[in-house]
Sequence to fold (142 residues):
Amino acid sequence: MKPPRILLADDHAPTLEGISAILAPHYEIAGSAADGRALVDAALRLNPDLIIADITMPFLSGIEAARQIKESLPGTKLLFVTMHSSPAYVRAALEAGAAGYVLKSAVLEDLLDAVQSVLRGRIFVSPGLSNEHLERDSPSDP
Fold:
């Protein structure tokens, strides 16, 4: 059985390399992109099983890229790996179609679990954010 194909997107090359190093022994890395537009193009061309993307990227945010990708490839699973811990970002990511949200500060602890959960059709949010993202009426939203 072929391993799931994963497309990576982050504008910081060392982050891409680190994520790839964690995942490569277990999954096929189908490609990578350094900005939101390149992510949409690569997703449409490669049709990966899972996309792991940052939120803050040049030309097009990861969240907007996710919306565009989900329109054309509704079956592709999305997981964000980001520095943004605000509940508003978590909600926006999930509303754009993401099934996972991992903080970059917790990538070593959470990434493999998150990928496995998302590929199995479950939602994964870094444990430190789990309660916060459920509070949809937070008055402190940006």
DSSP finds six helices and six strands in the chain. Residues 107-119 form the longest helix (13 residues). Residues 132-142 have pLDDT under 50 and may be disordered. The helical segments are 13-23, 36-46, 62-72, 87-95, 107-119, 130-134.
